[in-house]
Each structure stands twice: as C-alpha cells, then as structure tokens.
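Progress report, Aim 2. The chain analyzed during this reporting quarter is listed below.
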Amino acid sequence: MQNSSNGSEIGEKMASDILSRILVPYDGSKYSDHAVNRAIEISRKGLSQIYFISVVNVDYIQPPGSLLGMASPSSVNAIKQLTDSAKKETSQMLASQVSKCRIKGIKADSKVVSGNITDEILKFAKQKKITLIVIGSQGLHGIKKIKALGSTSRKVSEFASCPALIVR
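Predicted structure tokens for the chain:
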C-alpha cells in the first residue's frame, strides 16, 4: 500500500515547481495591480520568484514624412526621447512593485523592454523559464497605451509555453 504522505509531498513539489517563477506583465493599470496582488498571494510562502516586465511600445508613432523616407532628424530624435522617457518612468513604476514584493519576503526582479508587447512578454517568459504568467485582463488606454496590455492577455494565454492566469 502506498503511503499517502508521499503522494501529498509529490503534489506539493509539483505545485511549488509550477509556481517557482512567476511573470507579471505590468503596465500600471488597475488590472495589472490586481495581477500583482494575485501573484503575491500565490507566492506567499516565499518559494516563488516574481518577475515583472513592462513593454514600451511606440511603433504606432510615425514621424512626419517617415512613410516617404523623409523623416527629419528632429522628429526621429523626439520619438527617441519619448521612448527613453517612457522607459525611465516605467522602470520607476516597476521598482515600486519589486519593493512591494521584497517587503513581503518575495524575491522579485523587473525588466523594461521595447517592441511588440505580446512578443516581448513571450520571449522573456521563455528566456527566464517562467512557470506561470499572471496577467491583467485589460491594460491602459489612450495615450497611456504606450505601456498597455489590452488584448495582449488573450494572446499571451494562447501562445505561452506555461500556464497563464488572467486576472480581472
């Protein structure tokens, strides 16, 4: 007869493996705040590490004349400054989330990248061997869309190589 405590130990080991490396894509929206809180709940035993990623996306901003190959250096420079400013602000936003985790005894780290939001989240998850993605159901809108997730949660859940938890 099998010892039932061995079965529960195996189950706990599998659960801790699944929850060992949690990724939270974060954009500052109330939904990503809910995702952070859920990730903290999940890792409350301190066995998990939480990674935060935020993707700055300015691809939809085109300098005047760029479609004709005639963008002025000043307009290209303005977009670079906008991107740099957004990355700096985003880094500060993520630092506060990392601190929130560390205060609760949870290992945490963050990264700001630029590019396609979904692609960058999935690439980071693969690089870090993430075991669970906890993502907000909606992101920011309007001008704040530079850092938004939006329908990204659906795409991430479809294409991630690990489980994804979508939080409202």
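The chain is about 45% helix and 20% strand. Residues 30-47+72-120+146-162 form one domain. These observations will guide the mutagenesis work planned for the next reporting period.
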